[in-house]
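Example (one chain per record):
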Amino acid sequence: MRLRVLLGFAALAVPLGLALRAEGTPAPPERLSQTGLYDASGAIASGNLPFLPQYPLWSDGAVKARWIHLPPGSKIDVTDVDIWRFPEGTKLWKEFSFGGRKVETRMLWRTVGDWVFATYVWDADQSDARLAPAEGIADVVEIAPGKRHSIPSLADCAACHRSSPATVLGFNALQLSDDRDPLAPHGEPLQAEDVTLRSLLDTDLLEPARRELAIHPPRIRESDPLARAAVGYLSANCGGCHNGGGPLARIGLNLLHDSGGERSAPEPARGTTVDVAGRFLVPGHGPEDSRRVASGAPERSALLYRMRSRRPSSQMPPLGTVVPDDEALALLGRWITDLPH
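Predicted structure:
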């Protein structure tokens, strides 16, 4: 994989330091080193906890690192197990690297007014990262022949995070479950320092203390391991937009796992995709046989077609990726093939 970084900030035609935020919320710092992620030595500050979602979001093969900071003495409100409410002062960071070089670090910051979104783009010498313009930066790094990664606009960030019932997408009951899915595409083994539900409970960082999350760790409600991994991937990669409460709820496609659901209830993704007709027709197939997920027939499954496509008119997800996720496509293809007719 070739890597070409274009981080010449002096050549940018758009101003730095802009941010999309609600009125009354503070502006993010101009440099990543000013956000509290690092200590004076340049190491990750001790109060910032690493975490590893069990179903990582596909971002064209980027290597990611993630941290959360909770203000001392505060707790996460988990009254609604599916919509965690974070205390004022919470910060989350996600670092993207390609070819061994840090390219961008995104930050979510819970302020008195609202969440603040910010993206920092790393300098060529890797010493620090600067706040990107609100419009984003196109084509900053080549990640595959003819394919380049872009820094998203803050409107793009908000479009994804605001479409979900919970603004924070990767730090929740399912993603931090100690019952890890061994078949999760791009899953990584937990390290001793990584935050999990059990560690949050043991350190008294959840309110109320939901001990049932340790006794019965959240997991995708599928008995077949392949189906569990497929539905988990769809929940993490697609459920942020395609859920029962966001702007797209009217189309009736719900791919978001509900950890608060009955343990015997079917996954929303199964009931709204398998052998369900959708408005998008797989090319070459009419409305009589094109389905969102066609049991036993990946070639007639719109979901698989759109995940594979990188045409603007049909690509899913429409943002954040220019390279199809071949590992996930192979897994989902096997899952669809094995579905009983």
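Caption: The chain has seven helices and ten strands.
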